[in-house]
Amino acid sequence: DDEGRTRDIGPGESVPGWGAADETKASDYLNTMFFYDLNDSLGKKVRNFMRNVWDHSTPGIAKGMGAWLDRLEAHKETSYAALADELGGTPQNFFQNVYTPAMRIFFAALWKNPSLMAEINKRLQDQGLEQLGQELPRDVIVKELPFRAERWKTSAADRVTDRYSSRSNQS
Predict the structure, then answer these.
(1) Across-strand partners of 79?
(2) 37 or 45: which carries more pLDDT confidence?
(3) Res 147: pLDDT
């Protein structure tokens, strides 16, 4: 607190006064763990889970997001434009018909996987960051952000958890 007092926070407890900045820190940490530190064991586990979820999805999502993960893990460009070039189509089509529904499917499956969620939240807790709550997929991820053409040029990996923080900042 403001006077320097501390206490342990138990699982599932939130810290009074945590807001959008704390959510952004957690989001940034997860983004790095999942998509940039490709040697992180939990990040590998999450990416494998993503691949498995998407492989059991529609053929378009399986192919498109499989290509996205392959590019990510090979340190190649993952922009919507690069993926559209590889797969045939437009960046807008990739975003609207592959990436957005794939992320909804992934986050819905993630919240149905209590053991993986517990590992993610344990990691966040160990880092002193806000844990993910049950409201995230319902109130944030499932709601589609309006499509903005200037975002085609950003990396798809940069945007996964950005959805969480941008919706949280609007609340």
Answers:
(1) 155
(2) 45
(3) 34
The DSSP code sequence of 70-139 is HHHHTT---BHHHHHHHHSS-HHHHIIIIIHHHHHHHHHHHHT-HHHHHHHHHHHHHTT-PPPPTHHIII
Residue 125 has pLDDT above 90, yes or no: no
CA distance 106 to 65: 11
Confidence of residue 33 (pLDDT cuts 50, 70, 90): confident
Q: How far apart are the first and last CA of the chain?
A: 24
Rounded to whole angstroms, how far apart are CA atoms 8 and 74?
A: 40
**Distance, CA of 147 to CA of 124 (rounded, Å):** 30
pTM summary value? 0.67
Closest CA to 78 of 158, 144, 145, 149: 158
Q: What is the pLDDT of residue 56?
A: 95
DSSP symbols for 42-87: HHHHHHHHHHHHHHTS-HHHHHHHHHHHHHHHTT---BHHHHHHHH
Region of 166 please: left (phi>0), alpha (psi -120 to 50) or beta: alpha
